[in-house]
Amino acid sequence: MTDVPRPPRRSDTTKAAILEAARERFAADGYERATIRAIAHDADIDPSMVMRYFGNKEGLFAAASEFDLRLPEPAQLGGEDVGGVLVGHFLDRWEADEVLTALLRVGVTNAAGAERMAAIFREQLVPIAAGLGHDPAEAPRRAALVASQILGMAMARYVLRLPAAVEMDREEVVGWLGPTVQRYLTAERP
Question: What is the full DSSP assignment across the chain?
Answer without folding.
Answer: -PPPPPPPPPHHHHHHHHHHHHHHHHHHHHHHH--HHHHHHHHTS-HHHHHHHHSSHHHHHHHHT-----PPPHHHH-SSSHHHHHHHHHHHHHHH-HHHHHHHHHHTT-HHHHHHHHHHHHHHHHHHHHTTSS-GGGHHHHHHHHHHHHHHHHIIIIIS--HHHHHS-HHHHHHHHHHHHHHHHHSPP-
